[in-house]
Amino acid sequence: MALKTIWSDNVDTTAYPRPQMVRGSYENLDGLWDYKIVAGEYSPKANDSYDGKIRVPFALESPLSGVERSLDAFETLVVRRTFKGRDGDKFLLHIGAADFFCIVWLNGKELTRHVGGYTSFCAEAVAQEDNELVCVIRDPSDEGVGARGKQRRKNGGIWYTPQSGIWQSVWLEYVPDTYISGLRITPDIKTDSVNIKVFTNTGTKNFVFIDEDGKPVDCHDGEITYKVENAQYWTPETPKLYHFEIMLDGDRVKSYFALREFAMGKRADGKPCFLLNGKPYFMTGLLDQGYWPDGIYTPANDEAYVYDIRLAKQMGFNTLRKHIKVESMRFYYHCDRLGMIVWQDIVNGGGKYNNFWIMVAPTIGIGIKDDERSYRRLAREDETGRKLFVREMKETVEQLYNCPCIALWTIFNEAWGQFDSRQMTEKLLELDSTRLVDSTSGWYDQGAPIRSIHRYILPFRMPKKDKRHVVLSEYGGYSMKVTGHVFNEKKTFGYLVYNDGAKMNAAIEKLLRKQIIPAVKKGLCAAIYTQLSDVENEQNGLVTYDRKVVKADASVFAVANSLMCSEVDPE
User: Fold this and answer.
1) 438-441 long-range contacts, CB within 8 A, separation 24+
2) How far apart are CA 539 and CA 494, in angstroms?
3) What is the pLDDT of residue 532?
4) Is the dihedral of CA 96, 98, 99, 100 positive or negative?
5) Mapping DSSP to helix (H, G, I), strand (E, B) and coil, where does residue 493 land?
6) pLDDT digits (tens, 9 = 90+) for 20-41
7) What's the pLDDT at 143?
8) Helix pair 383-400, 421-431: axis angle to 10 deg
9) What is the rounded CA–CA span in Å between residue 348 and residue 146?
10) Which of 4, 160, 197, 440 is in the most buried spot, having the most CB atoms within 10 Å?
Protein backbone atom coordinates (compact mmCIF):
# COMPACT_ATOMS: atom_id res chain seq x y z
CA MET A 1 0.00 0.00 0.00
CA ALA A 2 1.85 3.03 -1.28
CA LEU A 3 -0.17 5.74 0.44
CA LYS A 4 -2.14 5.15 3.63
CA THR A 5 -4.58 7.37 5.46
CA ILE A 6 -4.46 7.75 9.22
CA TRP A 7 -7.33 5.20 9.41
CA SER A 8 -5.92 2.52 7.07
CA ASP A 9 -4.99 0.17 9.90
CA ASN A 10 -8.34 0.49 11.67
CA VAL A 11 -10.93 -0.63 9.12
CA ASP A 12 -14.47 -0.62 10.52
CA THR A 13 -17.63 -0.46 8.38
CA THR A 14 -20.03 -1.87 10.96
CA ALA A 15 -21.81 1.40 11.88
CA TYR A 16 -25.51 1.28 10.95
CA PRO A 17 -25.53 2.14 7.21
CA ARG A 18 -28.87 4.01 7.11
CA PRO A 19 -29.25 6.25 10.19
CA GLN A 20 -32.69 7.57 9.20
CA MET A 21 -34.29 4.10 9.24
CA VAL A 22 -32.72 2.08 12.04
CA ARG A 23 -33.98 -1.39 12.98
CA GLY A 24 -32.88 -3.52 15.89
CA SER A 25 -32.57 -6.65 13.70
CA TYR A 26 -29.60 -5.24 11.76
CA GLU A 27 -26.83 -7.67 10.75
CA ASN A 28 -23.73 -6.49 8.91
CA LEU A 29 -22.36 -8.75 6.15
CA ASP A 30 -19.17 -6.79 5.43
CA GLY A 31 -15.82 -8.52 5.76
CA LEU A 32 -13.86 -11.10 3.80
CA TRP A 33 -15.75 -12.66 0.89
CA ASP A 34 -14.58 -15.18 -1.73
CA TYR A 35 -13.93 -13.67 -5.14
CA LYS A 36 -12.90 -14.53 -8.67
CA ILE A 37 -12.70 -12.78 -12.02
CA VAL A 38 -13.98 -14.52 -15.13
CA ALA A 39 -14.25 -13.60 -18.79
CA GLY A 40 -17.69 -12.78 -20.15
CA GLU A 41 -21.06 -13.33 -18.51
CA TYR A 42 -21.44 -15.72 -15.60
CA SER A 43 -24.04 -17.60 -13.55
CA PRO A 44 -23.17 -19.21 -10.19
CA LYS A 45 -22.78 -22.96 -10.02
CA ALA A 46 -22.73 -25.39 -7.12
CA ASN A 47 -19.28 -25.99 -5.62
CA ASP A 48 -17.68 -23.13 -7.58
CA SER A 49 -14.02 -22.45 -6.91
CA TYR A 50 -12.68 -18.96 -6.18
CA ASP A 51 -9.38 -17.14 -6.60
CA GLY A 52 -9.05 -15.73 -3.10
CA LYS A 53 -10.51 -13.29 -0.57
CA ILE A 54 -11.72 -9.72 -1.05
CA ARG A 55 -12.68 -7.32 1.71
CA VAL A 56 -16.19 -5.92 1.25
CA PRO A 57 -17.16 -3.05 0.95
CA PHE A 58 -14.00 -1.93 -0.82
CA ALA A 59 -13.65 -1.71 -4.59
CA LEU A 60 -11.65 -4.38 -6.36
CA GLU A 61 -9.05 -1.80 -7.43
CA SER A 62 -8.48 -0.41 -3.93
CA PRO A 63 -5.65 -1.43 -1.58
CA LEU A 64 -8.09 -2.02 1.27
CA SER A 65 -9.91 -4.67 -0.77
CA GLY A 66 -6.83 -6.86 -0.49
CA VAL A 67 -6.85 -7.44 -4.27
CA GLU A 68 -5.94 -4.11 -5.96
CA ARG A 69 -6.67 -5.25 -9.51
CA SER A 70 -8.61 -3.52 -12.28
CA LEU A 71 -11.68 -5.02 -13.93
CA ASP A 72 -11.82 -4.85 -17.71
CA ALA A 73 -15.06 -4.14 -19.53
CA PHE A 74 -15.34 -7.74 -20.78
CA GLU A 75 -14.64 -9.28 -17.37
CA THR A 76 -17.01 -10.22 -14.54
CA LEU A 77 -16.31 -9.98 -10.83
CA VAL A 78 -17.94 -12.69 -8.72
CA VAL A 79 -18.03 -12.33 -4.93
CA ARG A 80 -19.48 -14.82 -2.47
CA ARG A 81 -20.07 -15.34 1.24
CA THR A 82 -22.17 -17.54 3.47
CA PHE A 83 -24.10 -16.53 6.57
CA LYS A 84 -26.29 -18.09 9.21
CA GLY A 85 -29.95 -17.13 9.10
CA ARG A 86 -33.17 -17.40 11.08
CA ASP A 87 -34.69 -20.29 9.16
CA GLY A 88 -38.03 -19.33 7.62
CA ASP A 89 -37.92 -15.66 8.65
CA LYS A 90 -38.36 -12.80 6.17
CA PHE A 91 -35.49 -10.36 5.77
CA LEU A 92 -34.41 -7.44 3.61
CA LEU A 93 -31.00 -7.69 1.95
CA HIS A 94 -29.43 -4.25 1.37
CA ILE A 95 -26.46 -3.28 -0.82
CA GLY A 96 -25.38 0.33 -0.33
CA ALA A 97 -23.76 0.59 -3.76
CA ALA A 98 -22.20 -1.73 -6.33
CA ASP A 99 -20.44 -0.38 -9.42
CA PHE A 100 -21.90 -0.87 -11.99
CA PHE A 101 -24.24 -3.76 -12.95
CA CYS A 102 -24.97 -6.26 -10.18
CA ILE A 103 -26.98 -9.50 -10.17
CA VAL A 104 -27.61 -10.92 -6.70
CA TRP A 105 -28.09 -14.65 -6.16
CA LEU A 106 -29.30 -16.16 -2.89
CA ASN A 107 -29.19 -19.89 -2.25
CA GLY A 108 -28.84 -20.73 -5.93
CA LYS A 109 -31.61 -18.46 -7.23
CA GLU A 110 -31.49 -14.97 -8.67
CA LEU A 111 -32.86 -12.55 -6.05
CA THR A 112 -32.51 -9.12 -7.70
CA ARG A 113 -30.44 -7.05 -10.09
CA HIS A 114 -29.49 -3.39 -10.22
CA VAL A 115 -27.95 -1.05 -12.81
CA GLY A 116 -26.04 2.00 -11.59
CA GLY A 117 -23.00 2.35 -9.41
CA TYR A 118 -24.09 5.02 -6.92
CA THR A 119 -27.49 4.24 -5.40
CA SER A 120 -28.60 1.61 -2.92
CA PHE A 121 -30.93 -1.30 -3.58
CA CYS A 122 -32.55 -4.04 -1.55
CA ALA A 123 -34.65 -7.17 -1.97
CA GLU A 124 -36.98 -9.18 0.23
CA ALA A 125 -36.07 -12.82 0.91
CA VAL A 126 -36.69 -15.71 3.29
CA ALA A 127 -33.75 -17.02 5.26
CA GLN A 128 -32.52 -20.55 5.56
CA GLU A 129 -30.35 -21.77 8.41
CA ASP A 130 -27.35 -21.79 6.05
CA ASN A 131 -27.30 -19.19 3.27
CA GLU A 132 -25.08 -18.51 0.28
CA LEU A 133 -24.97 -15.00 -1.19
CA VAL A 134 -23.33 -14.42 -4.58
CA CYS A 135 -23.00 -11.09 -6.41
CA VAL A 136 -22.08 -11.06 -10.10
CA ILE A 137 -20.79 -7.63 -11.16
CA ARG A 138 -19.73 -6.01 -14.42
CA ASP A 139 -18.40 -2.47 -14.88
CA PRO A 140 -17.68 -0.80 -18.24
CA SER A 141 -16.34 2.32 -16.47
CA ASP A 142 -15.68 5.04 -19.07
CA GLU A 143 -16.30 2.59 -21.91
CA GLY A 144 -20.02 2.70 -21.13
CA VAL A 145 -22.69 5.42 -21.16
CA GLY A 146 -23.82 5.13 -17.53
CA ALA A 147 -22.92 7.35 -14.60
CA ARG A 148 -19.24 7.05 -13.69
CA GLY A 149 -18.12 10.40 -12.28
CA LYS A 150 -14.38 11.02 -12.46
CA GLN A 151 -13.45 7.39 -13.15
CA ARG A 152 -11.30 6.70 -16.18
CA ARG A 153 -9.24 3.63 -17.11
CA LYS A 154 -6.42 5.93 -18.20
CA ASN A 155 -6.24 8.10 -15.11
CA GLY A 156 -4.37 11.37 -14.78
CA GLY A 157 -5.02 15.07 -14.22
CA ILE A 158 -8.66 15.46 -13.18
CA TRP A 159 -9.47 11.80 -13.99
CA TYR A 160 -8.99 9.12 -11.38
CA THR A 161 -8.57 5.38 -10.90
CA PRO A 162 -11.77 3.52 -11.80
CA GLN A 163 -13.34 1.30 -9.18
CA SER A 164 -15.56 -1.74 -9.52
CA GLY A 165 -17.63 -3.97 -7.30
CA ILE A 166 -19.34 -3.49 -3.95
CA TRP A 167 -18.18 -0.26 -2.33
CA GLN A 168 -20.83 0.38 0.33
CA SER A 169 -22.00 -1.91 3.11
CA VAL A 170 -23.97 -5.11 2.59
CA TRP A 171 -26.41 -5.82 5.40
CA LEU A 172 -29.70 -7.43 6.31
CA GLU A 173 -32.53 -6.83 8.72
CA TYR A 174 -35.37 -9.17 9.67
CA VAL A 175 -38.90 -7.86 9.20
CA PRO A 176 -42.43 -9.11 9.90
CA ASP A 177 -44.93 -9.90 7.12
CA THR A 178 -46.08 -6.26 7.09
CA TYR A 179 -43.21 -3.82 7.45
CA ILE A 180 -42.18 -0.20 6.92
CA SER A 181 -40.58 0.13 3.49
CA GLY A 182 -39.77 3.85 3.51
CA LEU A 183 -40.24 7.34 4.93
CA ARG A 184 -40.61 10.72 3.25
CA ILE A 185 -39.86 13.57 5.65
CA THR A 186 -40.73 17.17 4.72
CA PRO A 187 -40.25 20.00 7.23
CA ASP A 188 -42.23 23.27 7.14
CA ILE A 189 -40.83 26.18 9.16
CA LYS A 190 -43.86 28.33 8.36
CA THR A 191 -45.93 26.13 10.68
CA ASP A 192 -43.05 24.70 12.75
CA SER A 193 -44.15 21.24 11.72
CA VAL A 194 -42.96 18.20 9.81
CA ASN A 195 -44.91 15.95 7.49
CA ILE A 196 -43.89 12.30 7.61
CA LYS A 197 -45.28 9.86 5.06
CA VAL A 198 -44.89 6.18 5.94
CA PHE A 199 -44.74 3.59 3.16
CA THR A 200 -45.33 -0.11 3.80
CA ASN A 201 -44.93 -3.26 1.75
CA THR A 202 -48.65 -4.07 1.96
CA GLY A 203 -50.05 -0.55 1.61
CA THR A 204 -51.46 -0.41 5.13
CA LYS A 205 -51.82 3.15 6.43
CA ASN A 206 -52.03 2.46 10.16
CA PHE A 207 -48.98 3.18 12.28
CA VAL A 208 -47.91 4.78 15.56
CA PHE A 209 -45.67 7.85 15.67
CA ILE A 210 -43.57 8.31 18.83
CA ASP A 211 -41.84 11.66 19.39
CA GLU A 212 -38.52 12.06 21.17
CA ASP A 213 -40.31 12.55 24.49
CA GLY A 214 -41.90 9.11 24.08
CA LYS A 215 -45.40 10.41 23.34
CA PRO A 216 -47.30 8.04 20.97
CA VAL A 217 -49.76 9.23 18.30
CA ASP A 218 -52.00 6.78 16.42
CA CYS A 219 -52.10 7.50 12.67
CA HIS A 220 -54.53 6.03 10.14
CA ASP A 221 -53.89 7.94 6.90
CA GLY A 222 -50.35 6.84 6.04
CA GLU A 223 -48.86 10.13 7.20
CA ILE A 224 -48.64 12.55 10.09
CA THR A 225 -48.10 16.29 10.32
CA TYR A 226 -46.39 16.80 13.64
CA LYS A 227 -46.26 20.23 15.29
CA VAL A 228 -42.99 21.06 17.08
CA GLU A 229 -43.36 23.12 20.23
CA ASN A 230 -40.68 25.74 20.94
CA ALA A 231 -39.13 24.91 17.59
CA GLN A 232 -35.37 25.15 17.04
CA TYR A 233 -34.25 25.53 13.45
CA TRP A 234 -31.35 23.60 11.91
CA THR A 235 -28.34 25.62 10.78
CA PRO A 236 -24.64 24.77 10.48
CA GLU A 237 -24.15 26.77 13.69
CA THR A 238 -27.05 25.07 15.54
CA PRO A 239 -27.66 21.66 13.95
CA LYS A 240 -30.71 20.63 15.97
CA LEU A 241 -32.12 17.18 15.13
CA TYR A 242 -35.44 15.81 16.37
CA HIS A 243 -35.60 12.05 16.88
CA PHE A 244 -38.72 9.90 16.51
CA GLU A 245 -39.88 6.31 16.00
CA ILE A 246 -42.49 4.64 13.81
CA MET A 247 -44.23 1.45 14.95
CA LEU A 248 -46.23 -0.81 12.63
CA ASP A 249 -47.45 -4.12 14.08
CA GLY A 250 -44.21 -5.98 14.77
CA ASP A 251 -41.97 -3.52 12.94
CA ARG A 252 -40.25 -0.51 14.50
CA VAL A 253 -37.79 2.00 13.02
CA LYS A 254 -35.92 4.96 14.51
CA SER A 255 -35.32 8.15 12.55
CA TYR A 256 -34.84 11.92 12.84
CA PHE A 257 -35.72 15.17 11.14
CA ALA A 258 -34.72 18.82 11.28
CA LEU A 259 -36.67 22.02 10.80
CA ARG A 260 -35.02 24.07 8.08
CA GLU A 261 -35.77 25.75 4.75
CA PHE A 262 -33.52 26.66 1.83
CA ALA A 263 -34.73 29.29 -0.63
CA MET A 264 -33.74 32.20 -2.86
CA GLY A 265 -34.44 35.79 -1.83
CA LYS A 266 -32.87 39.21 -1.36
CA ARG A 267 -30.60 40.86 1.18
CA ALA A 268 -31.47 44.04 3.03
CA ASP A 269 -29.65 46.00 0.32
CA GLY A 270 -31.82 44.41 -2.38
CA LYS A 271 -29.11 42.16 -3.84
CA PRO A 272 -29.91 38.47 -4.53
CA CYS A 273 -29.01 35.94 -1.85
CA PHE A 274 -29.81 32.47 -0.60
CA LEU A 275 -32.03 32.14 2.44
CA LEU A 276 -31.70 29.68 5.29
CA ASN A 277 -34.84 29.58 7.41
CA GLY A 278 -36.00 32.83 5.84
CA LYS A 279 -32.79 34.79 6.57
CA PRO A 280 -29.95 35.74 4.19
CA TYR A 281 -27.19 33.16 4.40
CA PHE A 282 -23.92 32.98 2.49
CA MET A 283 -22.87 29.45 1.60
CA THR A 284 -19.10 29.23 1.62
CA GLY A 285 -17.81 25.79 0.86
CA LEU A 286 -15.29 23.31 -0.42
CA LEU A 287 -15.40 20.94 -3.37
CA ASP A 288 -15.43 17.48 -1.78
CA GLN A 289 -14.82 14.55 -4.13
CA GLY A 290 -14.80 11.85 -1.47
CA TYR A 291 -11.71 9.94 -2.63
CA TRP A 292 -9.27 8.02 -0.44
CA PRO A 293 -5.91 6.51 -1.44
CA ASP A 294 -6.59 3.29 0.47
CA GLY A 295 -10.29 2.74 -0.35
CA ILE A 296 -10.84 4.95 -3.44
CA TYR A 297 -14.58 5.65 -2.93
CA THR A 298 -14.79 4.09 0.53
CA PRO A 299 -13.10 5.44 3.68
CA ALA A 300 -11.59 2.95 6.09
CA ASN A 301 -14.04 3.95 8.81
CA ASP A 302 -16.58 6.54 9.91
CA GLU A 303 -14.01 8.78 11.55
CA ALA A 304 -12.58 9.63 8.14
CA TYR A 305 -15.87 11.31 7.19
CA VAL A 306 -15.94 13.13 10.52
CA TYR A 307 -12.37 14.37 10.09
CA ASP A 308 -13.10 16.00 6.72
CA ILE A 309 -16.30 17.65 7.94
CA ARG A 310 -14.71 19.01 11.11
CA LEU A 311 -11.64 20.25 9.24
CA ALA A 312 -13.90 22.24 6.91
CA LYS A 313 -15.83 23.69 9.85
CA GLN A 314 -12.61 24.67 11.63
CA MET A 315 -11.71 26.76 8.58
CA GLY A 316 -15.04 28.55 8.68
CA PHE A 317 -16.74 26.70 5.81
CA ASN A 318 -20.41 25.86 6.16
CA THR A 319 -20.89 23.93 2.90
CA LEU A 320 -19.43 20.93 1.08
CA ARG A 321 -20.16 20.37 -2.58
CA LYS A 322 -20.28 16.58 -2.93
CA HIS A 323 -18.74 16.40 -6.37
CA ILE A 324 -20.00 13.84 -8.89
CA LYS A 325 -20.42 11.10 -6.30
CA VAL A 326 -23.15 9.84 -3.99
CA GLU A 327 -21.79 8.98 -0.56
CA SER A 328 -22.78 6.42 2.02
CA MET A 329 -25.73 7.56 4.11
CA ARG A 330 -23.28 7.75 7.02
CA PHE A 331 -21.65 10.82 5.42
CA TYR A 332 -24.93 12.73 5.23
CA TYR A 333 -25.81 11.73 8.79
CA HIS A 334 -22.57 13.26 10.06
CA CYS A 335 -23.27 16.44 8.06
CA ASP A 336 -26.75 16.52 9.60
CA ARG A 337 -25.55 16.14 13.18
CA LEU A 338 -22.36 18.23 12.94
CA GLY A 339 -23.91 21.04 10.91
CA MET A 340 -22.63 21.05 7.34
CA ILE A 341 -24.69 22.09 4.32
CA VAL A 342 -24.29 19.79 1.30
CA TRP A 343 -24.61 20.60 -2.37
CA GLN A 344 -25.21 17.24 -4.03
CA ASP A 345 -24.11 16.58 -7.60
CA ILE A 346 -26.03 14.12 -9.75
CA VAL A 347 -23.37 11.75 -11.12
CA ASN A 348 -22.56 12.36 -14.77
CA GLY A 349 -22.30 9.84 -17.59
CA GLY A 350 -22.63 9.78 -21.37
CA GLY A 351 -20.32 8.77 -24.19
CA LYS A 352 -16.71 9.66 -24.90
CA TYR A 353 -16.28 13.36 -24.28
CA ASN A 354 -15.40 15.63 -27.20
CA ASN A 355 -12.45 17.52 -25.74
CA PHE A 356 -13.07 20.62 -27.83
CA TRP A 357 -16.74 21.08 -27.03
CA ILE A 358 -16.48 19.90 -23.45
CA MET A 359 -13.24 21.53 -22.35
CA VAL A 360 -11.96 24.06 -24.88
CA ALA A 361 -14.97 25.81 -26.37
CA PRO A 362 -16.22 27.37 -23.10
CA THR A 363 -12.81 28.85 -22.29
CA ILE A 364 -12.71 30.77 -25.58
CA GLY A 365 -16.28 32.00 -25.34
CA ILE A 366 -18.06 29.45 -27.55
CA GLY A 367 -21.36 28.49 -25.97
CA ILE A 368 -24.27 26.16 -26.66
CA LYS A 369 -27.57 27.98 -26.57
CA ASP A 370 -29.78 24.91 -26.76
CA ASP A 371 -28.48 21.63 -25.34
CA GLU A 372 -31.62 19.85 -26.57
CA ARG A 373 -30.02 19.95 -30.03
CA SER A 374 -26.45 19.25 -29.01
CA TYR A 375 -26.49 15.54 -28.17
CA ARG A 376 -23.57 14.84 -30.51
CA ARG A 377 -21.43 17.72 -29.26
CA LEU A 378 -21.98 16.80 -25.62
CA ALA A 379 -21.64 13.02 -26.09
CA ARG A 380 -25.29 12.21 -25.33
CA GLU A 381 -26.43 10.58 -28.56
CA ASP A 382 -27.16 7.26 -26.85
CA GLU A 383 -30.85 7.18 -25.87
CA THR A 384 -30.34 4.37 -23.37
CA GLY A 385 -27.72 6.45 -21.57
CA ARG A 386 -30.08 9.43 -21.36
CA LYS A 387 -32.87 7.29 -19.94
CA LEU A 388 -30.46 5.76 -17.46
CA PHE A 389 -29.41 9.23 -16.28
CA VAL A 390 -33.03 10.20 -15.62
CA ARG A 391 -33.60 7.02 -13.64
CA GLU A 392 -30.42 7.44 -11.60
CA MET A 393 -31.26 11.09 -10.90
CA LYS A 394 -34.64 9.95 -9.57
CA GLU A 395 -33.03 7.24 -7.42
CA THR A 396 -30.48 9.72 -6.03
CA VAL A 397 -33.09 12.31 -5.07
CA GLU A 398 -35.39 9.74 -3.49
CA GLN A 399 -32.53 8.15 -1.54
CA LEU A 400 -31.28 11.46 -0.13
CA TYR A 401 -34.56 13.40 0.14
CA ASN A 402 -34.81 13.06 3.94
CA CYS A 403 -31.30 14.42 4.66
CA PRO A 404 -31.62 17.85 6.34
CA CYS A 405 -28.13 18.91 5.25
CA ILE A 406 -28.79 18.87 1.50
CA ALA A 407 -29.55 22.36 0.22
CA LEU A 408 -28.97 22.13 -3.52
CA TRP A 409 -28.87 19.63 -6.38
CA THR A 410 -26.36 20.06 -9.21
CA ILE A 411 -27.63 18.33 -12.34
CA PHE A 412 -24.77 18.78 -14.81
CA ASN A 413 -21.15 19.70 -14.17
CA GLU A 414 -19.12 21.44 -16.88
CA ALA A 415 -21.26 19.95 -19.66
CA TRP A 416 -20.16 16.36 -18.97
CA GLY A 417 -23.11 14.35 -20.22
CA GLN A 418 -25.29 17.47 -20.34
CA PHE A 419 -28.57 17.30 -22.25
CA ASP A 420 -32.10 18.74 -22.09
CA SER A 421 -31.18 20.89 -19.08
CA ARG A 422 -34.51 22.68 -18.89
CA GLN A 423 -36.42 19.39 -18.97
CA MET A 424 -34.09 17.83 -16.41
CA THR A 425 -34.58 20.82 -14.10
CA GLU A 426 -38.35 20.43 -14.34
CA LYS A 427 -38.08 16.70 -13.65
CA LEU A 428 -35.90 17.28 -10.61
CA LEU A 429 -38.23 19.92 -9.19
CA GLU A 430 -41.10 17.45 -9.61
CA LEU A 431 -39.09 15.05 -7.44
CA ASP A 432 -38.08 17.70 -4.90
CA SER A 433 -39.38 21.25 -4.86
CA THR A 434 -37.94 21.98 -1.39
CA ARG A 435 -34.35 22.61 -2.47
CA LEU A 436 -32.30 24.79 -4.81
CA VAL A 437 -31.19 23.53 -8.23
CA ASP A 438 -27.98 24.36 -10.09
CA SER A 439 -28.81 23.06 -13.56
CA THR A 440 -25.51 23.64 -15.35
CA SER A 441 -22.55 24.14 -13.07
CA GLY A 442 -19.70 25.94 -14.78
CA TRP A 443 -20.42 25.92 -18.50
CA TYR A 444 -23.15 26.07 -21.14
CA ASP A 445 -25.65 28.06 -19.11
CA GLN A 446 -29.23 27.44 -20.24
CA GLY A 447 -30.90 30.31 -18.41
CA ALA A 448 -31.90 28.62 -15.14
CA PRO A 449 -32.61 30.79 -12.05
CA ILE A 450 -29.10 30.14 -10.68
CA ARG A 451 -26.10 31.35 -12.72
CA SER A 452 -23.24 28.99 -11.87
CA ILE A 453 -19.67 30.00 -12.73
CA HIS A 454 -16.30 28.20 -12.55
CA ARG A 455 -13.22 30.38 -12.55
CA TYR A 456 -9.60 29.29 -12.29
CA ILE A 457 -6.46 31.39 -12.85
CA LEU A 458 -8.31 34.27 -14.54
CA PRO A 459 -9.73 36.95 -12.21
CA PHE A 460 -13.34 36.56 -11.12
CA ARG A 461 -15.71 39.49 -11.48
CA MET A 462 -19.43 39.54 -10.90
CA PRO A 463 -21.49 39.60 -14.13
CA LYS A 464 -22.79 43.17 -14.45
CA LYS A 465 -25.99 42.55 -16.40
CA ASP A 466 -27.09 39.19 -14.98
CA LYS A 467 -29.72 39.73 -12.28
CA ARG A 468 -30.02 36.07 -11.36
CA HIS A 469 -28.62 34.43 -8.23
CA VAL A 470 -24.93 34.06 -9.07
CA VAL A 471 -22.75 31.38 -7.48
CA LEU A 472 -19.05 30.73 -7.93
CA SER A 473 -19.41 26.95 -7.83
CA GLU A 474 -15.67 26.29 -8.36
CA TYR A 475 -12.64 28.52 -7.84
CA GLY A 476 -9.13 28.43 -6.41
CA GLY A 477 -7.35 25.16 -7.09
CA TYR A 478 -4.02 26.40 -5.73
CA SER A 479 -1.64 23.46 -5.66
CA MET A 480 1.37 22.37 -3.61
CA LYS A 481 3.06 18.98 -3.42
CA VAL A 482 4.01 17.63 0.02
CA THR A 483 6.69 15.02 -0.64
CA GLY A 484 5.91 11.68 0.97
CA HIS A 485 2.19 12.40 1.05
CA VAL A 486 1.27 12.25 -2.62
CA PHE A 487 -0.21 9.62 -4.92
CA ASN A 488 2.36 10.23 -7.64
CA GLU A 489 5.70 11.86 -6.83
CA LYS A 490 6.42 12.53 -10.51
CA LYS A 491 3.20 14.30 -11.50
CA THR A 492 1.47 17.36 -10.09
CA PHE A 493 -1.81 18.84 -11.26
CA GLY A 494 -3.20 22.17 -10.15
CA TYR A 495 -4.26 25.49 -11.61
CA LEU A 496 -1.53 27.52 -9.89
CA VAL A 497 1.38 25.52 -8.49
CA TYR A 498 3.50 26.57 -5.50
CA ASN A 499 6.57 25.03 -3.91
CA ASP A 500 6.27 26.94 -0.64
CA GLY A 501 3.39 26.78 1.82
CA ALA A 502 3.73 30.38 2.98
CA LYS A 503 3.58 31.66 -0.60
CA MET A 504 0.57 29.48 -1.42
CA ASN A 505 -1.35 30.68 1.62
CA ALA A 506 -0.45 34.31 0.88
CA ALA A 507 -1.78 33.86 -2.66
CA ILE A 508 -4.99 32.31 -1.34
CA GLU A 509 -5.46 35.19 1.09
CA LYS A 510 -4.97 37.68 -1.74
CA LEU A 511 -7.51 35.84 -3.89
CA LEU A 512 -10.09 35.87 -1.11
CA ARG A 513 -9.60 39.52 -0.17
CA LYS A 514 -9.18 40.99 -3.65
CA GLN A 515 -11.74 38.97 -5.61
CA ILE A 516 -14.14 36.86 -3.55
CA ILE A 517 -15.05 39.17 -0.65
CA PRO A 518 -15.64 42.13 -3.01
CA ALA A 519 -17.86 39.87 -5.15
CA VAL A 520 -19.92 38.97 -2.08
CA LYS A 521 -20.48 42.68 -1.46
CA LYS A 522 -21.78 42.96 -5.02
CA GLY A 523 -24.26 40.10 -4.62
CA LEU A 524 -22.42 36.78 -4.97
CA CYS A 525 -24.66 34.17 -3.28
CA ALA A 526 -22.19 31.33 -2.66
CA ALA A 527 -18.60 30.27 -3.33
CA ILE A 528 -17.02 26.80 -3.47
CA TYR A 529 -13.23 26.56 -3.20
CA THR A 530 -11.37 23.71 -4.96
CA GLN A 531 -10.80 21.61 -2.96
CA LEU A 532 -10.93 19.87 0.42
CA SER A 533 -8.25 17.22 -0.16
CA ASP A 534 -5.73 16.22 -2.79
CA VAL A 535 -7.03 13.50 -5.11
CA GLU A 536 -4.50 11.27 -6.87
CA ASN A 537 -2.44 13.54 -9.19
CA GLU A 538 -4.36 16.64 -8.11
CA GLN A 539 -2.46 18.35 -5.32
CA ASN A 540 -4.75 21.35 -4.87
CA GLY A 541 -6.37 20.22 -1.63
CA LEU A 542 -6.27 22.04 1.68
CA VAL A 543 -5.11 18.73 3.15
CA THR A 544 -3.00 15.98 1.59
CA TYR A 545 -4.60 12.90 0.03
CA ASP A 546 -3.68 10.79 3.07
CA ARG A 547 -5.16 13.47 5.38
CA LYS A 548 -1.89 13.66 7.33
CA VAL A 549 -0.73 17.20 6.45
CA VAL A 550 -2.96 20.28 6.43
CA LYS A 551 -1.43 22.60 3.84
CA ALA A 552 -3.79 25.54 4.20
CA ASP A 553 -3.57 28.17 6.91
CA ALA A 554 -6.87 27.66 8.72
CA SER A 555 -6.93 31.24 9.99
CA VAL A 556 -6.81 32.67 6.44
CA PHE A 557 -10.01 30.91 5.47
CA ALA A 558 -11.66 31.34 8.87
CA VAL A 559 -11.27 35.13 8.77
CA ALA A 560 -12.31 35.42 5.12
CA ASN A 561 -15.32 33.14 5.54
CA SER A 562 -16.47 35.14 8.54
CA LEU A 563 -16.25 38.35 6.51
CA MET A 564 -18.23 36.83 3.63
CA CYS A 565 -21.02 35.60 5.89
CA SER A 566 -21.27 38.89 7.80
CA GLU A 567 -21.45 40.82 4.53
CA VAL A 568 -24.64 38.94 3.59
CA ASP A 569 -26.20 38.94 7.06
CA PRO A 570 -24.60 41.55 9.38
CA GLU A 571 -26.45 40.10 12.37
Assistant:
1) 438/343, 438/408, 438/409, 438/410, 438/411, 438/471, 438/473, 439/411, 439/412, 440/371, 440/411, 440/412, 440/415, 441/345, 441/410, 441/412, 441/413, 441/414, 441/473, 441/474
2) 6
3) 98
4) negative
5) strand
6) 999 999 999 999 999 999 999 8
7) 87
8) 30
9) 8
10) 440
Class in CATH terms, 26-174: mainly beta
Q: Is 108 left (phi over 0), alpha (psi -120 to 50) or beta?
A: left
Read off φ and ψ for residue 192, nearest 5 degrees: 50, 50
What number of CA atoms fall less than 13 Å from residue 2's CA on the CB side?
A: 13
Domain definitions of the chain by residue range: 26-174, 180-257, 265-568
Give the pairing type, strands 216-219 and 207-210.
Answer: antiparallel
CA proximity to 227, closest of 188, 187, 195, 193: 193
- Distance separating alpha carbons of residues 142 and 385, to the nearest angstrom: 12
Say if residues 248 and 207 touch (Cβ distance below 8 Å): yes
pLDDT of res. 571:
67
What is the spatial distance between Cα 165 and Cα 155, in angstroms, rounded to a whole number?
18
Q: Which CATH homologous superfamily contains domain 180-257?
A: Immunoglobulins (2.60.40.10)
**DSSP 8-state symbol, 459:** P
Q: Give the span between the Cα atoms of 319 and 52, in whole angstroms.
A: 42
Domain spanning 265-568: CATH 3.40.50.720: no
List, in sequence order, every residue forming a beta bridge with 530; answer none if it has no partner.
476
Smallest CA-to-CA distance from 388 within 40, 150, 118, 166 is with 118
389 closest CA partner among 362, 370, 371: 371
**pLDDT below 70 — which residues of the chain?**
1, 571
Length of the chain: 571
